[in-house]
Fold this sequence. Notes:
This protein is an alpha+beta fold. It is 35% helix and 24% strand.
Amino acid sequence: MKNSKIIAAALFSAALLGGNFSADAQNDMAKGSKMSQKTVMVGGAAMYPNKNIVENAVNSKDHTTLVAAVQAADLVSTLQSDGPFTVFAPTNTAFEKLPNGTVATLLKPENKQQLQGVLTYHVVAGNYSANDIVAAIKKGNGTASFTTVSGGKLVAMLKGKNVMIMDENGNTATVTISDVNQSNGVIHVIDTVVLPAS
């Protein structure tokens, strides 16, 4: 499933459009994110902090659908750029939750623009660690809003100790692996595909 790897790249490029935080908040979060640069295992592969998002994502067996999507959306070069990006990366299982035929339809050449919109909706400009996101949630009295690269909104919240991401349709995803540091940003693995408002 090379398509999963493509989607992952697309999500990273979306982050270029920026978040909904003040410049000071973004600077503070970026500094905090640099403090923890350990190698994390995702999908049976080591995610090295000195490699970019695409270089790492292609090795995760849990993100083949995402990588394939990123490739189909022509977002690979974007996600290999300097960034930084914060990517909420859905697993293969997350894509399988979508209605039958959704992924195959999105991967068709004629639906490239729609695929780009979905992928960039998972990307926020900047490098936001889990601690940064939790701090923003607390500062926002329970929620933190992020503007994605696609121009949509994602809302982060806590459910117990878990960080949850809610899309514009009210659907939620749980961050299952956080702080997967890359040379050009950070990946947070999520268990559900988030979608912009129709």
